[in-house]
Amino acid sequence: MKKVGILIVIVAMVFAAGIAAADWQPKRPVTLIVPWSAGGATDQTCRTLAGEMEKVLGQKIAVINQPGGSGSIGMKNAFEAKHDGYTWTGNADGSVITYQVLDLLPNISHRDWIHYYAMLTAPVIAVPYDSKIKTIDDLVADFKARPGQVKVASAGVGAGGHLAAETFRKATGIEYRHIPYPGGRPAVVSTVKGETEVVMQLSMEVADMLRAKKLRALANMSTQSLVIDGYGEVPPVMQFLPNHAPLQYLFGLYIAKDTPKEAVAVINKAFDAAAASDAIKRLAKEKASAVVNYKGDEALKLSETTGNNVNCILQEIGIAKKDPAAFGFMCK
Q1: For residues 75, 207, 125 and 119, what is the CA-based torsion angle, rounded to 10 degrees?
Q2: Residue 68 zone, left/alpha/beta (φ > 0; ψ -120 to 50; rest)
Q3: Which residue among 26, 99, 272, 273 has its CA within the 20 to 30 Å range from the CA of 126?
């Protein structure tokens, strides 16, 4: 009789746990830390996702911008919060996988997060609309005429625009002057204002300025043309520089890997709904980007591939503070 009673208790506990897992819902607002300034690709993606995920979660998602340290400060703050499903962060795969190599987050790995990616976007090589530079050939010639003097804006050391500039440098043999900003939008605005001469930030961040005829696009770094509504077609840089490597980034959300499974299950459901929403589709169309839905192991695997490429570039140019091999990245 005693054994039967114990068995009933165990079954009841398992059943209750199953009900709790199925019914978990946030009981207070969720905090989503965007570790970049407002208006950039991460910010736009996160705010759109948050607006859609709120509908599933039944709770407000408070989006807070905490720029600095090439995105590492906000991510550190998110990781140091309680791992209970109530604090998330956002970023791009091309940034998150650099923080240990750059010694910005020596004790927090990209493998300590669950990755959720909803947007794929490529860097666009752009200059002020009234610039004398009209083509990629013009740009390369200007770089070579003024080695180390042409000012190129980016969202910070190791950020997408910086790595785009380094990829361009590697393909052309030019040298440039890097001017880092605390996010993609201020980097783009600096080129519009003429503080800098070139920007290679992401299509999401330059599209509005292209439509407004504040910037001129020379090429993009994906393997195909981008068609930007209200502006036109932006050809792939390989059309002009066949040896130029392709470069593109995934944007989305991150939660700590040891977040309770019942919370993860509900967040997964909310993310799936947001990634399939009309709002995220509109954002992608407006910003010449592509909607994706990668999460969990699949997303981490994609990040590993990006990490191998990006961290090896950082090592090659002498910016890496630590050997990528120490974190599992193998450079040839």
Answers
A1: 40
A2: left
A3: 99
Count CB neighbours of 82 within 10 A.
9
Q: Cβ neighbours of residue 79 under 8 Å, at least 6 residues apart?
A: 89, 108, 112, 113, 256
**Positive or negative torsion for Cα 201, 152, 132, 225:** negative
Give CA–CA dist 25/67, Å, rounded: 29
Structure tokens at 256: 């700590």
Using an 8 Å Cβ cutoff, are 254 and 75 in contact?
yes
Per-residue pLDDT reduced to its tens digit, 269-310: 999 999 999 999 999 998 889 899 999 999 999 999 888 888
Domains of the chain with CATH codes: 26-121+250-327 (3.40.190.150), 126-239 (3.40.190.10)
pTM given for the model = 0.80
- Identify the sign of the CA torsion 103, 106, 112, 114: negative
